[in-house]
């Protein structure tokens, strides 16, 4: 039986760096890395959140809340992935272009202010998914303390709860561009429409959700528990009406529960190198 992962292993990986920037979304993975980094490095660690049209409403406020809770210095940078043709084209390597933009900006910040390394929140479970962004990370010498410590997602959530990190139970929230099928061009208006639709569903009390952009149709996916209550006719009508009011001509509630990554059509292993 594999022994449970130990936070000391994460802290040991972090301790090999004299200082660090943490690529910080405010999700549970990067939040645990940030919490460990400030425990080990103190003022020599900083959490950095990228702001762009692909960042969902409320995510920046959430990141600020988590950073304050764990006691790490926090700042924002602006990224312009939409200026990259490979990102706008939205092929299967979209995340590579997005992360290349992010790590270019973080590397520049690290160089100008003297931070030695960039840490990400990737964990071992990410290695079995289709994650082109990990290739960009390898090209920029980004380190992954959770991977180095052998942490899987369950380990991350367990330790985040133990440390009372506010995002311990936060559902995964990939960037808004992940709601678009490959081949559908990414543009700010489409991202804004998806964001409005998802915010409208949150206003109805739903938490684990995606609105998949299918041209003029918004396909709504909900987590398993929330889907059970959404199947009542009145609830379904309210959900679909909210998405139409956000700008879609049609809206349909998927009867299958949300599966993160289901829209990519890819579930291939990707090793971290470098």
Structure write-up:
Helices cover 43% and strands 13% of the residues. The chain is α/β, with parallel strands linked by helices and 274 residues long. The protein folds into two domains: 7-162, HUPs (Rossmann fold, 3-Layer(aba) Sandwich), CATH 3.40.50; 176-253, Alpha-Beta Plaits (2-Layer Sandwich), CATH 3.30.70. Helix 2 packs parallel to helix 3, helix 2 packs across helix 8 and helix 5 packs parallel to helix 6.
Mean pLDDT: 93
CATH homolog superfamily of the largest domain: HUPs
- Helix and strand element order: HEHEHEHHEHHHHEEHHE
Amino-to-carboxy terminus distance: 30 Å
Tally of distinct domains: 2
Helix content: 40-55%
Radius of gyration: 19 Å
Largest sheet data: 4 strands, parallel
Structural class: alpha/beta
Provide a quick synopsis of the model.
The protein is 43% helix and 13% strand.
Descriptive terms for the model:
three-stranded mixed sheet; 11 helices; four-stranded parallel sheet; 274 residues; Rossmann fold; alpha/beta; Alpha-Beta Plaits
List the helices and strands and how they pair.
Elements: H1 7-15, E1 20-23, H2 28-41, E2 45-51, H3 59-70, E3 73-78, H4 85-89, H5 94-113, E4 117-119, H6 133-139, H7 145-148, H8 153-162, H9 188-203, E5 209-214, E6 217-222, H10 224-230, H11 233-245, E7 250-253
Parallel strand pairs: 1-2, 1-4, 2-3, 6-7
Antiparallel strand pairs: 5-6
Helix pairs in contact: 1-2, 2-3, 2-8, 5-6, 9-11
């Amino acid at each position: 039986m594999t022994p449970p992962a130990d936070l000391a292993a994460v802290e040991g990986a972090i301790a090999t760096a004299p200082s660090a920037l943490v690529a910080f979304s405010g999700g549970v993975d990067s939040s645990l890395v940030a919490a460990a980094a400030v425990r080990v490095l103190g003022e020599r660690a900083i959490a950095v959140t990228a702001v762009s049209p692909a960042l969902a409403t409320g995510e920046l406020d959430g990141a600020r809340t988590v950073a304050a809770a764990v006691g790490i210095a926090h700042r924002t940078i602006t990224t312009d992935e939409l200026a990259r043709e490979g990102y706008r084209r939205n092929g299967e390597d979209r995340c590579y272009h997005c992360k290349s933009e992010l790590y270019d900006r973080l590397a520049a910040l690290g160089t100008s202010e003297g931070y030695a390394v960039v840490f990400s929140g990737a964990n071992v479970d990410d290695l079995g998914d289709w994650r082109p962004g990990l290739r960009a990370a390898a090209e920029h010498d980004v380190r992954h303390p959770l991977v180095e410590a052998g942490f899987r997602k369950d380990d991350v959530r367990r330790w985040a709860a133990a440390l009372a990190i506010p995002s311990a139970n936060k559902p995964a929230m990939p960037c808004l561009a992940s709601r678009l099928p490959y081949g559908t061009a990414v543009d700010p208006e489409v991202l804004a429409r998806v964001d409005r639709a998802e915010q409208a569903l949150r206003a109805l009390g739903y938490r684990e959700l995606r609105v998949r952009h299918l041209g003029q149709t918004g396909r709504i996916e909900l987590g398993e528990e929330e889907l059970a209550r959404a199947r009542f006719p009145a609830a379904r009508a309210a959900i679909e009406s909210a998405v139409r009011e956000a700008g879609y001509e049609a809206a349909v509630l998927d009867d299958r529960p949300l599966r993160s990554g289901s829209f990519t059509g890819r579930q291939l292993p990707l090793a971290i190198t470098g």
